[in-house]
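The data are quoted verbatim for completeness:
=====
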Amino acid sequence: MENNEFLFVVNPQAGKGRGLAYKARIEKTLRSWGIEASVVASDGPDSVFSLGKRAAQDGVRTLVGVGGDGTGNLLLNGMMASGLPAEALPRFGVIQVGTGNNFAKNAGVPSSLDENLAVIRNGHTIPVDVGLMTGGNMRKYFLNVVSFGFDAEITEKARIQKEKFSFVPKALTYGLAALEEIWRGLPSYQLKLQGLGFSFDSRMSLVAALIGPTYGGIFRIAPGADSSDGLFDVCLIDKIDNNLQGKKRAVTILFRATRGTHIGQPEVCLYRTPFLKVSSPEILPCEVDGEVMPSQKEYQVSILPRALRILVPAALATVQDPLVARVNAPEYQPA
């Protein structure tokens, strides 16, 4: 790496090309602050993963993903592949460019580029949990969510719709895909689940294990989730009948989930656990941080407590990194 203090990894495809436009603005702003940094554009998922791994191995102090949830996930998996302990990993920052940005929103990171860069420069951090999903030959770390069943199916449908209708916001395509799937017939799966203090063997439509409260852009699936408590918030939705009454119930729960008021509905359960085992006699769709994974029949999900330091606004922070004293005095506020 050219610079071991700051590395910005830009996804040029993120946000309909905004990622590449942000690259020049980031470089200009950093130069005006007298900060030397490496700002590189990736050329695909493998490149993002490799840059995350190299950043950890080369001792980069601060790694920033300029993109969406997918960019952040790839950088995380690259860092974790370095084999370094949590305390040796770079501080992690995100600049919102993607269409979902669930991790950034959950962390309280501002959407304005100038405000976002100020957060990164000021160096305030909090420790957050990291999730790990394994199944078959897969080993995938995640920043926010792993889900099984209905949600994984509509994630893929939403991705296809987004490619066909690029002008439609991602949150809207996700909602429309969900409504379409409900109308066609809400799928359900025979599942065995085991977590701390609970186990089930029943038919369900959705299982989602979250670190933060939201996913899908607009859905507050786990409104009380705490990203540093060492626990997943696991939301379970029972099988819902595919008659007209059942479809109405499914739509009601869907819209309630945008406000987090689905909790307490008869079909919905919420549990907190540091691990989750999921199995099914049939192939079970799965998605991780918005990426649909190869389907398996068995999965294990575990949490790595406070395994990553992320950069956040000062009001949310618990720590100010010593690096700040070298690059930033006094605290910077954007104009």
The domain at 6-123+317-327 is CATH 3.40.50.10330 (Rossmann fold). The chain has two domains: 6-123+317-327, 138-305. Confidence is low (pLDDT under 50) at residues 322-335. Residues 14-32 form the longest helix (19 residues).
